[in-house]
């Protein structure tokens, strides 16, 4: 299955795209990556079919990972809550994908905090999930709500990190996440997209917080270079983002910020592995 | 690429990104404008390829090919925008 810029090459060709030209441009990205050797881990991918049409299955994700040298990817459902609203089928599908690709896909579960979340987390934990994904915008809840706090508390008791969407959205983020962390001080949260939804305020509030990390998926370069590299984990946000620009972003940010090779290696895998390694 | 050229493109590509996400027909003209701004610069090929997609394929459409082309155009513009941001910040 040939893919280019994250999309199926045959589909693009059938639509009339110059696939050879697109491939050459993407190959130049791959060849130009100034990144250290070593295993790359991706903190942010989705499997399934989103309500907005984005779709990715495990076979295509692993094919993309192979092309871009990604050893393992955290995966969780797309915005696909299903008829019960609790992501039951979607979480089961992610767990099955992880079982079918051992060592390559690290399953996180996704829940709607106000819809059977406790049972959904317990079911996913029993099935081998290793973390939780929460999307305050798509599921329409506040990070500081009692329902969300309960989910984060439960995940923390399981030893799980919790990855939050922190990209586009209307609400402020720093205050709500401060309230959440005050309620669950032991929580370890990853704010996706470099917290670009409220980057300046979040950086001022959490840049040195021991329980807060930031993923680089679809982040803005100016936001990343103002964060400490030890708090960053690489993410692609497949299938909304693509691996090529995700990796290029880390390389460019490293050049602008002057990160060391060891710091970049941490962003590309070491920091996430440590986060996941302490999950029970 | 000068910083001025980079900042000009960051602004142009930001508008393109939002138009593509919102499937707004203004994406095509905005891409053409961005491609002119990028012509001859290091990121010119990326932006030109995205503009070519907009001329060839309906980027607001809902077929599999149209969706894939829209996502590819977004990725091309993202690649170019990142490089321009790096120039602007260096």
Notable characteristics:
heterodimer; A: 280 residues; alpha/beta; 6-stranded parallel sheet; 4-stranded mixed sheet; 12 helices; globular; B: 90 residues; mainly alpha; elongated
Describe, in plain words, how this protein is organized in 3D:
The complex is a heterodimer of chains A (280) and B (90). The termini of chain A are far apart. Chain A is globular and about 50 Å long. In chain A, β11, α10 (221-224) and β12 form a beta-alpha-beta unit. In chain A, α4 (88-100) packs parallel to α5 (117-127). Chain A is of the alpha/beta class. Chain A has a six-stranded parallel β-sheet with strand order 7-8-9-10-11-12. Chain A has a four-stranded mixed β-sheet with strand order 4-3-5-6. In chain A, strands 1-2 form a two-stranded antiparallel sheet. Chain A contains twelve helices and twelve strands. Chain B is mainly α and 90 residues long. In chain B, 78% of the residues lie in helices and 0% in strands. Chain B has four helices and no strands.
The topology string of helices and strands of chain A comes to EEHHEEHEHEEHEHHEHEHEHEHH
Q: Would you identify the regions of chain B where 5 or more consecutive residues have pLDDT less than 50?
A: none
Look at the helices and sheets of chain B and give the structural class.
mainly alpha
Cα-to-Cα separation, first versus last residue of chain B: 11 Å
The number of strands of chain B is: 0
**Greatest interface and its residue counts?**
A-B, 33 and 27 residues
Low-pLDDT windows of residues of chain A: none
- Biggest β-sheet: strands ordered side by side in the sheet of chain A: 7-8-9-10-11-12
CA gyration radius of chain A, whole angstroms = 18 Å
Total DSSP E strands of chain A: 12
| Rg on CA atoms of chain B, Å | 12 Å
Oligomerization: heterodimer
Provide mean pLDDT of chain B, rounded: 96
Continuous helix count of chain A: 12
């Amino acid at each position: 299955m040939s893919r280019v810029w994250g999309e199926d090459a045959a589909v693009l060709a059938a639509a009339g795209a110059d696939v050879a030209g697109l491939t050459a441009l993407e190959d130049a990205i791959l060849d130009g990556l100034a990144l250290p050797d070593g295993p790359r881990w991706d903190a942010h991918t989705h499997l399934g079919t989103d309500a907005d049409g984005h779709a990715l299955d495990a076979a295509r994700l692993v094919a993309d990972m192979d092309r871009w040298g990604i050893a393992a990817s955290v995966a969780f459902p797309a915005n696909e809550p299903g008829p019960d609203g609790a992501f039951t089928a979607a979480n089961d599908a992610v767990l099955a994908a992880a079982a079918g690709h051992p060592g390559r896909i690290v399953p996180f579960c996704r829940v709607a905090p106000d819809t059977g979340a406790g049972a959904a987390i317990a079911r996913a934990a029993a099935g081998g999930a290793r973390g939780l994904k929460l999307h305050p915008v798509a599921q329409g809840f506040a990070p500081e709500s009692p329902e969300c706090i309960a989910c984060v508390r439960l995940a923390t008791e399981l030893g799980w990190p919790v990855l939050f969407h922190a990209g586009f959205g209307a609400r402020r983020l720093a205050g709500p996440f401060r309230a959440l962390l005050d309620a669950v001080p032991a929580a370890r949260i990853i704010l996706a997209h470099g917290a670009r939804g409220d980057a300046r305020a979040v950086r001022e509030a959490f840049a040195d917080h021991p329980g807060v990390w930031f993923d680089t998926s679809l982040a803005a370069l100016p936001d990343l270079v103002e964060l400490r590299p030890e708090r960053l984990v690489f993410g692609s946000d497949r299938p909304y983002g693509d691996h090529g620009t995700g990796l290029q972003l880390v390389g460019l940010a490293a050049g602008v910020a002057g990160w060391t090779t060891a710091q970049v290696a941490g962003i590309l895998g070491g920091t996430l592995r440590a986060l996941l390694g302490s999950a029970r | 690429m000068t910083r001025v050229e980079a900042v000009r493109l960051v602004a142009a590509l930001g508008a393109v990104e939002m138009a593509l996400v919102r499937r707004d027909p203004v994406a095509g003209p905005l891409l053409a404008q961005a491609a002119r701004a990028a012509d001859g610069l290091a990121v010119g090929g990326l932006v030109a390829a995205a503009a070519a997609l907009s001329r060839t394929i309906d980027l607001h459409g809902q077929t599999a090919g149209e969706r894939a082309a829209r996502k590819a155009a977004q990725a091309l513009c993202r690649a170019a925008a990142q490089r321009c941001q790096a120039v602007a910040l260096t």
